[in-house]
Amino acid sequence: MSSPNATPDATPDAVTTVFAVSGLHCGHCETAIAKAVTALPAVRAAGASASAGRLTVTTAGEPDEALLARAVDEAGYALTGRI
């Protein structure tokens, strides 16, 4: 039985989301976009595939799509939606 003063785990569950991205052409592009996205505070992991035109992001809780889109845009690519 838990104590009435126990605090619940404050870490939200991880959420993995796949996005379509335009402008990915090579391994350098994959590295650049993953680096830009993993710099965001809630992002736990990110990986990009130039051949699939996809970005897979694991975040603590639901992703902030506007923030992700801004980071992707600043890296020179365009987030075009969820897959």
Please list the strands of the largest sheet in the order they lie side by side.
2-3-1-4
CATH class: Alpha Beta
Helix-and-strand structural type: alpha+beta
State the major sheet. 4 strands, antiparallel
Count the domains.
1
Q: Write the CATH fold name.
A: Alpha-Beta Plaits
Number of helices: 2
How large a portion of the residues is in β-strands, by DSSP E? 25-35%
Residue windows where pLDDT falls under 50 for at least 5 positions = 1-10
In angstroms, what separates the terminal alpha carbons?
42 Å
Helix content: 25-40%
Structure description:
- The protein has two helices and four strands; from the N terminus they run βαββαβ.
- With 83 residues, it is of the alpha+beta class.
- It is globular.
- It has a single domain (14-82), classed as Alpha-Beta Plaits, CATH 3.30.70.
- Residues 1-10 have low confidence and may be disordered.
- A four-stranded antiparallel β-sheet has the order 2-3-1-4.
Summarize this entry quickly.
This protein has 83 residues and is an alpha+beta fold. It has two helices and four strands.
Write the layout of secondary structure elements.
Elements: E1 14-22, H1 27-38, E2 43-49, E3 54-60, H2 65-74, E4 78-82
Antiparallel strand pairs: 1-3, 1-4, 2-3
For the structure shown, list the relevant keywords.
83 residues; alpha+beta; Alpha-Beta Plaits; four-stranded antiparallel β-sheet; 2 helices; 27% helix; globular; disordered N terminus
